[in-house]
Amino acid sequence: MATQPSSDLTRRTAAQLSEALRAGEVTSVEVTQAHLDRIAAVDGAVHAFLHVSAEEALATAREVDARRAAGEELHPLAGVPIAVKDVVVTKGLPTTAGSKILEGWVPPYDATLVERLRAAGLPILGKTNMDEFAMGSSTEHSAYGTTHNPWDLDRIPGGSGGGSAAALAAYEAPLAIGTDTGGSIRQPGAVTGTVGVKPTYGGVSRYGLIALASSLDQAGPVTRTVLDSALLHEVIGGHDPRDATSLPEDLPGLVAAARAGQGGDLTGVRVGVVDELNGEGYQPGVRARFEESLELLRRAGAEVVHVSCPHFGHALAAYYLILPSEASSNLAKFDGMRFGLRVEPTEGTVTAERVMAATRGQGFGDEVKRRIILGTYALSAGYYDAYYGSAQKVRTLIQQDFAAAFEQADVLVSPTAPTTAFRLGEKLDDPLAMYLNDVATIPANLAGVPGMSVPNGLSEDGLPVGFQILAPARADDRLYRVGAALETLLEREWGGPLLNRAPELATEGTTR
User: Fold this and answer.
1) How much of the chain, in percent, has pLDDT values that exceed 70?
2) What are the pLDDT digits (tens) for 146-205?
3) Where would a tag sit more exposed on the chain, N or C end, judged by fewer CB atoms within 10 A?
4) Annotation marks residue 127 as catalytic
5) Which Gene3D superfamilies does the UniProt record give (predicted)?
């Protein structure tokens, strides 16, 4: 068996690696080592990873190779390595959620989705960087340093899951896990030229996710192709009795839908353009690529219609009351008492209250404190109905907008993000400007419907943009059919994947 060049192995999709592994053309050890070598070469510049678990990943790879050599029937993705966002707990590997308050914490158990990754034989390369407790749109709020966009190292990779998206775009991993509370998988996908999927709420277990907002959080795939997302989604999805919000039914045929979509035929599919997600505030290049993608869908046989979701204009305001309120409750457990950081006051009597105050004061970053304060205020006596209660009523109206829109269309579409990746530091001092990056992605989380971002070209500044597809709850397969069709049509136009047009990262002297 000839050894494959490392660069060749890191450029292959997960589906291609799966085929090569099963055909005996390459071993999992070779594939895993190639990605570890790539991380060592470029992550000094990108900073996608907070922790690299080389020893464990190679041990898993060796086990997979031995089992395959013995003739054992393995999962199709067995031996394909993966990176995991650091908000997902991993037994034996540090899990910090990007926060100093959890620095050095090693969980005693695995999240359900990690159990499923391990059972399927995917070597875990390490844990990826993120905005602290998933609060942010740029990965600049990590307590452990900023992640850089591989397309332009002076720009943001999106957030909160910028580490996972950047790892894919930099060819440091063929697959990754992200979480999406208001766009944290899809928006990084858009600005890094990768594919990101937020499954239907409850479609992937939340057991073992460090909660930000329990009614909004959802784990999902971060990949370079739609088919790869479908393959990974089928590994991590499905019912989990340990998660009270887990859906009881099986997943629809996601891989089959993606493969069907690769034919590029969308005859009979009704595509609804959401007028409220395609107005002012969108960068000219983002709008231009969106209109071009719509034309490709029309040529593929889709019927494109316009739909109105009148309450989407209030989604951002409702979200930034619901999320901080739930975060205020969920983050109360980080108090310096049982695990993580503990800071004792330097003067006066040491009491539980003073330890908690000192720990939280030093352990949480500014953005986390901002949202905790906002959420605590919104839940306080006399204000609950006016703020949190009113936001939940708006949420119901948004759900009703989705229901009406899906009577007119099979999927809904919009640009994923209003702009391309902005420069590091550009919006750090303006929280509202930062929050507006999620204006198109937030409605899906409020309603619990699935969403996907597919890279659909470069804007006038030479940076990638994303095309968002939304489907009804439990109809994730529609995302994969339409997303794969659009991907196929675009790659025919481009002559290959969009990431082929990204600048090559230097591999020497790339420390930051």
Assistant:
1) 98
2) 999 999 999 999 999 999 999 999 999 999 999 999 999 999 999 999 999 999 999 999
3) N
4) no
5) Amidase signature (AS) domain (3.90.1300.10)
> Which among 28, 137, 142, 160 is annotated as catalytic?
160
d(C-alpha 322, C-alpha 446), whole Å? 9
| 395: phi then psi, degrees, rounded to nearest 5 | -55, -40
Answer yes or no: pTM beyond 0.85. yes
SS3 33: helix
| Residue 261 tokens, joined | 């979509």
Residue type, 347: E
pLDDT (tens digit per residue) in 334-387 = 998 888 899 998 888 899 999 999 999 999 999 999 999 999 999 998 999 999
Q: What is the DSSP string of 292-361?
A: HHHHHHHHTTPEEEEE--GGGGGHHHHHHHHHHHHHHHHGGG-SSSSSS-----SSS---HHHHHHHHHH
User: Which residue type, as a one-letter code, is found at position 511?
Assistant: T
Class of residue 429 by CB neighbours under 10 A (exposed 0-12, middle 13-18, buried 19+): exposed
Q: Which residue in the list 85, 100, 198, 427 is annotated as catalytic?
A: 85
Q: Going from the N-terminus, what domains does the chain have, and what CATH number goes with each?
A: 6-312+397-501 (3.90.1300.10)
Work out the angle at residue 195's Cα, subtended by the Cα atoms of residues 324 and 247, and round it to the nearest 5 degrees.
Answer: 60
Catalytic pick from 28, 184, 205, 325? 184
Distance CA 353, CA 334 (A): 13
| Residue 427 known to be catalytic | no
Residue pair 285/420 in contact (Cβ under 8 Å)? The answer is yes
CA dihedral over 196, 202, 203, 207, signed as positive or negative: positive
Task: Grade residue 5 by pLDDT with cuts at 50, 70 and 90.
Answer: low
* DSSP string for residues in 150-192: TTBTTB---SSSHHHHHHHHTTS-S-EEEE-SSSTTHHHHHHH
Q: Tokens in use for 12?
A: 């292959």
Backbone torsions φ then ψ of 67, nearest 5 degrees = -65, -40
Phi, psi for 35 (deg, rounded to 5) = -75, -35
Is 184 catalytic? The answer is yes
